[in-house]
Specification:
268 residues; Rossmann fold; 6-stranded parallel β-sheet; 11 helices; globular; binds NADPH dihydro-nicotinamide-adenine-dinucleotide phosphate
């Protein structure tokens, strides 16, 4: 039996175990997936070897460190410097990023007419996602409460601003909560005065958090906008991670169906 884990802090909310275990069972793969609350990101690499696991997903707040912990990186992970999927092969750690293609697929399936996207938040998930959206023809602006994390985006040519420098002259079509605000608290990702303006002007709002209605999504609905939470992104990034975990043994659609069933069971 191969073991897999999700590392994060917090990690108790994660639906990755139910998704992956459902797919292992449905497809007859001898795998078992659990969760591990990791406080110190620097322990990640040692934990993978110590626990003898075959692979892992990495969630908040360890993705940037996971990038540094790998021996080999695929081209996209190398480019975005953020890893959410690790596979151990021959005592080497291979790193991938499946969040960004997962988000892109969820966004495309949402069918919003418009390409101007505003990110609230500039962490590991925003980093990879901004790059894939840019490569797919979207015009992404990144805002964050503190300035340090905006450097990554400035270097890559994105428009950026801190919440103090807020500017709505672009009239964004889609506003995305890319922060963890609302995950374990009830906070909005940015000052309400700013959020009111950007949401009112937008066509649709997306939150990457799943499993609860965050204050951001609640406000978006109150302002009459089309909304989407992070469930589809979760599903699509999970299918891609599963393909890496099982070395492409299964068809994308059969993994998707099995994972969907797992998610449905967990919310029924
Ligand atoms: P990081 O820890 O790398 O970054 C966190 C970001 O959130 C930073 O920009 C930080 O700003 C900001 N932030 C945190 N708390 C607040 C707050 N109270 N108010 C304003 N800004 C805040 O996290 P990740 O990028 O890895 O993850 C972000 C979110 O994406 C998480 O909620 C995670 O659960 C979700 N996610 C969902 C996935 C899915 O499949 N649906 C997949 C991957 C992630 P600052 O720089 O100022 O600290």
């Amino acid at each position: 039996m191969e073991q897999f884990l999700i590392f994060g802090n917090p990690v108790s909310h994660s639906k990755s175990p139910i998704m992956h275990n459902s797919a292992f069972k449905a497809l007859g793969y001898k795998g078992c997936y659990g969760r591990y609350k990791l406080e110190d990101a620097q322990e990640l690499r040692d934990k993978v070897f110590e626990l003898g696991i075959k692979g892992a997903n990495i969630t908040v707040p360890h993705k940037e460190y996971a990038f540094k912990a790998c021996d080999e990186l695929d081209e996209f992970a190398k480019k975005v410097k953020s890893v959410n999927t690790i596979v151990r092969r021959d005592n080497k750690l291979y790193g991938y990023n499946t969040d960004a293609p997962g988000f892109l697929k969820a966004l495309e399936s949402f069918g919003v007419d418009g390409k101007r996207v505003l990110f609230l938040g500039a962490g590991g998930t925003a980093q990879s996602t901004a790059v894939i959206l840019l490569e797919s023809g979207y015009d992404v602006t990144v805002s964050n409460r503190s300035i340090a994390r905006l450097e990554y985006f400035k270097e890559r040519g994105f428009d950026t601003f801190t919440y103090d420098e807020f500017d709505n002259s672009k009239h964004f079509d889609i506003v995305v909560n890319m922060t963890s605000a609302g995950l374990k608290d009830d906070s909005l990702p940015a000052p309400k005065s700013m959020i009111d303006i950007v949401i009112s002007d937008a066509k649709a709002c997306i939150d990457v958090i799943y499993g609860k209605e965050t204050p951001f999504l609640k406000l978006s609905k109150e302002l009459g906008k089309a909304t989407k939470d992070g469930s589809d992104m979760l599903l699509y990034q999970g299918v891609l991670a599963f393909e890496h975990f099982t070395d492409y043994k299964y068809e994308y659609d059969e993994i998707l169906e099995a994972m969907k069933r797992g998610l449905e069971l967990s919310s029924s």
